[in-house]
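Example 3.
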Amino acid sequence: MTTIAAVPPFAELLDAPRPAEPAWLAARRAAAAERFAAVGVPSSRDEDWRFTPVSAIANTAWTAPGVSPEVTAADIARFRLSTGSLAVLVDGRFAPDLSELPAGVTASSLHAAISEGNAELESHLGLVAPIAMSPFVALSLATFTDGVVLHLAEGTTLATPLEVMHLTTTAAEGALIAPRVFVTAGTGARGAILEQFVSLADTLHVTNAVTELVLAPESWVEHVRVQRESEQAWHLGFTHAEQATASHYRSFALSLGAKLARHNLHARLGGEQVETLMYGLYLTRDSQLADTHSAIFHDQPNCNSWEVYKGVLDDTSRAVFNGKVFVQPIAQKTDAKQTNRNLLLSDTARVDTKPQLEIFADDVKCTHGATVGRLNDLQRYYLQTRGIGGRTAQELLIWAFAAEVLTEVTIAPVRAAIEQIVRNRLDEMLG
Amino acid sequence: MSLLNITNLHAAVDESEILKGISLTVNAGEVHAIMGPNGSGKSTLAQVLAGHPAYEVTQGTVTLEGEDLLDMEAEERAWAGVFLAFQYPVEIPGVTNAYFLRMAYNEVRKARGLDELDPMEFLDLLEEKLKVVEWGPEIMERAVNFGFSGGEKKRNEILQMAVLEPKLAILDETDSGLDIDALRIVADGVNKLRSPERAIILVTHYQRLLDYIVPDFVHVLAGGKIVKSGGKELALELEAKGYEWLTGIPEAAAV
Amino acid sequence: MSTEMETLVNREYKHGWVTDIEMDTLPPGLTEETVRFISAKKEEPEWLLEWRLKAYRRWLEMTEPTWPNVHYPPIDYQSIAYYSSPKSMKPLGSLDEVDPKLLETYEKLGIPLSEQKLLAGVAVDAIFDSVSVGTTFKATLAKEGVIFCSFGEAVKEHPELVKKYLGSVVPASDNYFAALNSAVFSDGSFVYIPKGVRCPMELSTYFRINAANTGQFERTLIVAEEGAYVSYLEGCTAPKRDENQLHAAVVELVALDDASIKYSTVQNWYAGDENGVGGIYNFVTKRGKAGARAKISWTQVETGSAITWKYPSVILQGDDSIGEFYSVAVVNGMQQADTGTKMIHIGRNTKSTIISKGISAGKGQNSYRGQVKILPKAHGARNYTQCDSMLIGNACGAHTFPYIDVQNSTSDVEHEASTSKIGEDQIFYCKARGLNTEHAISVIVNGFCREVFRELPMEFAIEAQKLLGISLEGSVG
């Protein structure tokens, strides 16, 4: 890994003057900056980045985003996944005028929450997703300027999902956008968070997003993440959920955008009776690369985790999947299942998948599976004999393949919106 | 001397007492049915007799032909002639039925001071025994209970019983999950194995099985105790009146 | 198959004794001179010396791999002796001239070398430290044109074949241990099956490490010409010693068009004691190259060694070629294993199957590491991988690292993995049918490994089952 050459691309951001911050944050930022300086932008020699070339990121001197053009409610309406509350970040900056945060939901700009003093932030920010998770997580902590803080109060149930929209504009060109989302769910709280990454302009930028979730006992959180950024952009996303006893975290991630998209999704099962569900779908075309690195840490007994990621690849696109499940010696009666399935539509597309189990407890049920294949000829033939041919048959079979994970989005209108996004993309891919 | 003698048997699992003082005498040649609502302790009694390590006997004695049964490991009980047909027979992937059964058979023979059979001799024996459950030899090449239907698993248990020729066979809910044809085959198998030297304990929730295997005695278990004993007509009475008649507890609540 | 699995009484590693024989051992240390000495001792031609020296120089530039999931103190390559042979050995002597002490050694290991006593149908090459003691049934095999001899003999008698194929599958610079082996390899077996010949008997090599502080660096080369078939077996043991000993072998298989090679290993090197003292470091490179419609099948039962690092692989070069890997790896005590395979699909319609069964007990750590690579032109390639782990006790670990890399859209790759324990209910069920606990475990474990054992030739399957029982001795309370 390079150390010296990697730092200058972000020098402007790392050295940017910042408004006065609490001492705890300043200290964490300093440690993160030091960590990033030590490790730098990863190279393909780094096992975690073996198939995902990001070293070129170090060739550009990235800036902070410029002044964003005016964004109207109409601009964002077409991206909405729900009709509920909304927090909008334009080029990484919280936009209060576009946001609709109803009473009863504690939600605010991260910057504001820090200034006001927030005990939860002090105990967790930058610690849930530790800087050791990735050089980019360290970079995020060192450089972030704003984001969103969401709190689901103890014992409450959110009636509608909380939508967080990360939007980039022409001002993102050449910039590093580093938003952070911080979610806490109190004991027994229930709710859904929809996180979206969208672009108004086809800019070349780096999104380096970190989302931290802290789930108290018996809380239930659904986390939908849709990434459809500019296909010029680099998207680096890191999500870490810290789960207490009997909490339930279900994630659904859809990846369509960016030239290169990387998502690390980690969950630590830190109490008993925890449930963790991770579903994902990636659709890639042209020379896109979509990379998912998931890690599920079974630290306690009697927990279940279930993961299904599916991908459809066209043209010369690539997908990387790396799923790790760690089962600690005390995590007896763990039940973990992981599956990664890929459908290649073109002869020049490529998949590298590595489902990985590391198990230190004996009374566990752990399985994983991975497949890479093409559309089933027999099924296609069967459809043909029933009068469904060509593109229709192809689309139907791909849809059937993808549907297994799409149905896991529990909120019907959100699911419908996502299905539409997927249909549109498949239409474009099948041309 | 009676074959099986249970006196004031108390047993617990995870420190919660399930059997609360069972006494029962079974003589060779007899068929006893143990009936009772869910949660009454029927299956626990079966498992305790077979020596399941999860159950702790806290009081009482059990003897088989005067020998202390509770002092024996599960395999020693098998050698002594105890056979439990499991309610949920266990799958052992990769081990063929033929191999497993021959091994079990030879272990029992060895313990009784008899010569072991070689594979060819055993095959001849097996041919006879397969008739008991109306099966062909192909079942022997499949892995033990692996991928078997519910009915096949129960038939396999009866086949094992036929091969191992126990003195005391305990059939734990052998009728559960069987369709009428499978029930007939299993019951016919058991009837063929009735003999003056052998005692059979049928553990069942329903009267249905007893239409096929007619017991000499019926005992009703509730709350870990035998609350009533009688002849085969007791089962019919139960069928008509329900367990509530004896236990005073509505059946749904007893679960 | 009834009593062989009950032999759970042998609590000791039964091959841990030493043959007291006068040895001609090179002092420890590795320099260019060492390489020249070995080559000279074996009276090798100049080209082979050059080949070794090139490998040695390459090795000097390389670093030991750190990616395997195994941990051991640094190896001091200068403290190892690189050549050791019994003083009584005569070059290319016939079996009648072999020192009786050596014959006794193999007799004791259960491998009698006199042809009368041998199992009919199995020819044996016996390797003792750095040299081949002798090869049986050579004459019988020669009638069919089959060459089965020590590597050293092959260099002298069939230099054109050795020169053509040596390093053609595992280049000298392939990896650190392969480079080391290429520089200092001492002996090993050579097999050549002519076109269209089905080798009339099983060929087998038995490796024995005897001398202390000595590394064993054997080299095996098997060439099956077009349409030929051979089944080859390999067994290994070593004395119990407190020092770790290095075994860095290279095996190359060449299966030309329509040929078939079946390679089976029962590896039972000394594993070290329960505290992890002593034992063999088994760092081995095994690879085969398959021509059109050719088939290469690896079966391994790995029960010994302190550390195993080994990935028998197949390069599926020809269209319609087939690669198979069946493996049982057992770790107990402080053993560590990082083993698996690579299936590199180059030709069209190539097929590979991987069945891996890992059993971890004691404080053992067992890793499956496998790569399935489908290159862009390997249209219609297929892979099926099944990778099961069983844990016994709660101080051990099971790890799976499958790498799947697919580069075209007409291939199907399927990977399944599971982890299970021996269920209490399975043990109780067996006990209720009259089996004692150890017997029950042996039956269940052997059932778990059945898909692999049935790939082994009969005698080896029985041996493997016995070994499994011994390896897991005392692992369940």
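Chain A has a mean pLDDT of 91. DSSP finds nine helices and 20 strands in chain A.
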